[in-house]
Amino acid sequence: MPDCETYEVTVVMAVYRGIDTLPVTLASIMQQEDVCFEVVLIDDGNTPVDREALISIAAPYPNVRVIHNSANRGLTKSLIAGCEAASAPFIARIDNGDLMLPNTRLRQQADLLRAHPEVGIVGGETEFLDLINGGRYCSKFGRRHYPCGETDSGAMLFIHVTVMFRQSTYQTAGGYDAQLRVGQDTDLWPRMLRVAEGVVEPIVYAVAPMGPNSISVKENNTQIWGKISRIWHEEHNGGNLIKRVFFKTSRVIPEFLKLLLPAGVRVRMRYQKHMNYLGAIAPEVRKSLSNIAAFYAIKTEK
């Protein structure tokens, strides 16, 4: 990283448990080139032992700040605190346990936002490691442009750990909703696109391992109930009442059925439907989440 008097990008990441994966995630962030950035880590009410470990891991990096929550407040409120503490005009996201790729990601996204002041948020592709079933997948969005005023939330393909957004757009849109425990990202994107344009680049910007303790797995029931609620409360002007109820019911029933399935089956269904299969995960990577260090070394050598 060049010598910096001010920062162009603030990377915001909440940390609760999972301290063993933090060194690898932080190392992947520190590989970013040609950009002045800071990292704001939110200690979300960790135990004293984990808190000390977090401080020790962050200590070698002068551009890392640690904010401490007095108790576990959850991801959404931690991200709100991190964004409030951000000093840079652009905010990037990554989660503990994930890898930031390539080493020019922050530079590429910041350049796009600077070159296009009408764009308020930019995202990219993600490679997922299904540690439950042992498969590797990659999102297949391609390049997408969302005009200001886009209203189809189902078409907003921004993966949280790949995004960078303007702090001004975030604030104008009202920021993360503190009332939401999960789904804070899919709630925020439509509000951002009411005030700015959005872009998804066809570049892998993050590697995300999905294990039994991942938020997307642990909180999947809550996410499904949230989706059911959104479907049921959507406004449809066409057709009579019976047709509208039938249309909503036909979309809600499959979501109810998902609640009956084991987590591994849900994960496999999600990836096989929406993503490209890249092959099996190497046994040493699947064995332990901490072994993503080996996977990270392989990816960065390419």
Automatic annotation (TrEMBL):
**Matching Pfam families, A to Z?**
Glycos_transf_2
- Coiled coil residues, start to end: none
Keywords attached to this Swiss-Prot or TrEMBL record, sorted alphabetically, are: Glycosyltransferase, Transferase
What domain of life is recorded for the organism?
A: Bacteria
Protein EC: 2.4.-.-
Q: Which family does it belong to?
A: Belongs to the glycosyltransferase 2 family.
- Protein name in the entry: Glycosyltransferase EpsE
The organism named in the record is: Aureliella helgolandensis
Lineage of the species this protein comes from: Bacteria, Pseudomonadati, Planctomycetota, Planctomycetia, Pirellulales
